[in-house]
Amino acid sequence: MGVGLIEIISEMAKVLSLSLRLFGNIFAGEVLISVISGLVSALVPAPFMMLELLVGLIQASVFTMLTLVYLTVMTAEVQHSEH
Q1: Which tens digit of pLDDT belongs to each residue from 1-34?
Q2: Is 37 a catalytic residue?
């Protein structure tokens, strides 16, 4: 019983950890753009906005792949334990 509870908490912690890391990365980029926009005119932050869009797309794809791997491993373990 105790090991099963620890496994459930472990899986929930993985999802929470991925979610918080993605939120932190995106929030840091938004703070960077806000600070640069506040310090200089509207044209200077434009390249940083494009860079942040690219970084956001890359991060979203990486975290999607990580989630897919976690779910694949989790479902593979469940399928093996059923047989």
Answers
A1: 677 788 888 888 888 888 888 788 878 878 877 8
A2: no
Could you state, in order of their start, the residue ranges of all structural domains in the chain? Answer: 2-82
Q: Quick one: pLDDT at residue 33?
A: 77
Residue with tokens 């791997």: 69
C-beta separation of 24 from 32 below 8 A = no
Q: String of b and e for 29-59 (b: at least 16 CB within 10 Å)? A: beeebeeeeeeeeeeebeeeeeebeeeeeee
Catalytic residue among 10, 19, 21, 34: 21
Q: Is 10 a catalytic residue?
A: no
Global pTM value: 0.53
> Quick one: which of 20, 23, 52, 19 has its CA closest to 35?
52
